[in-house]
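Q: What changes when S-adenosyl-L-homocysteine is included in the input?
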Amino acid sequence: MLQPGELQMVEPKRAKPPVHWSDLNSDERKAKVVELGLPAFRADQFSRQWFARLNDDPATWTDVPAELRERVKDELFPNLLTSIRALDCDNGTTVKQVWKLFDGALVESVLMRYPGRVTMCISSQAGCGMNCPFCATGQGGLTRNLSTAEIVEQVLAGARALERGEITGGEGRVNNIVFMGMGEPMANYKNVIATIRRMTDPAPAGYGMSARGITVSTVGLVPRINDLASEGIPVTLALSLHAPDDELRDTLVPINTRYKVREVLDACWNYADVTKRRVSIEYAMIKDINDQAWRAERLADLLVGELVHVNLIPLNPTPGSKWTASRPEDEKAFVRILQERGVAVTVRDTRGREIDGACGQLAATVS
Ligand code: SAH
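A: The predicted holo structure follows.
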């Protein structure tokens, strides 16, 4: 028998998010409806409502018998994300959502509308275990992986708002998804791949967007980069490099102590070879830390001649950070050096800064 005090030592069983339609692939959906005693053809009906019509209220699904609708909602479409705060800026074209999950964990997603396209930045984990010192999410550690449906529903929430004309600019669709919110997508590999499949599967099974519009951003988990190369899905791979030398990268991206710059770049070039997709190199510009001209030269040495594009991100200092963004003249010099060596480079826009929606600020602190 347990003695008083012993109870605390028993690990609490971590509850899992309820299973949702968006967790399931086509075969699993058919099996699920059959398990509920319904004919298999209902699966396509439900999927069409959810992914094609973007109607998230089963009570209004007139092609489903009225007496079934409530049961369908409860058993197949449980609510997973509760919006506890929506913040917008840029005239309503940037919208950040803070979501509360079934267990109280908080995650964020950001919708960004540009002329002619909409990008959604989504979270793959609650928190993150990668511990990069300049990133707000990294400071809080990892809470847990998100389920596939918890990731998918972040996109669909944005897709529905667009479909209903609720976002400045009128009706629209999500064209791009970037896994650049909270979490390390490669550390939740299975669910991230399933999410990509849900988003790219043609309607009615999925949202039917192009895999080319999806970017998976990683600190560089080499075995998972190799796995992704063999999936046969042409998503864009983004590597958060942030330093060309192991000495500095060991401190900025601690997983570098395990997978070195050379090794992770080789995995990237293999990815580019297999998929014919240009790899994106993310590089946060941190004043006097990684922005010296000699580091730009070192970076160019590593990248020249490869199928690659460099994205420089002005550092968003996290609260209490000892680091800040590079001086404009240092940023310009860095860009020029890369350009002169023939390496494609752009400076990332910093949409959503005012609403803490920009890179590295997705800490989901709610006060
Ligand atoms: N874990 C993944 C994806 C999430 S972060 C990754 O590391 O790639 C998305 C991008 O924002 C990464 O390149 C990350 O290094 C960058 N980032 C994090 N904190 C930042 C900050 N404070 N300023 C600028 N970029 C930051």
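Observations recorded in class: The CA atoms of residues 102 and 298 lie 46 Å apart.
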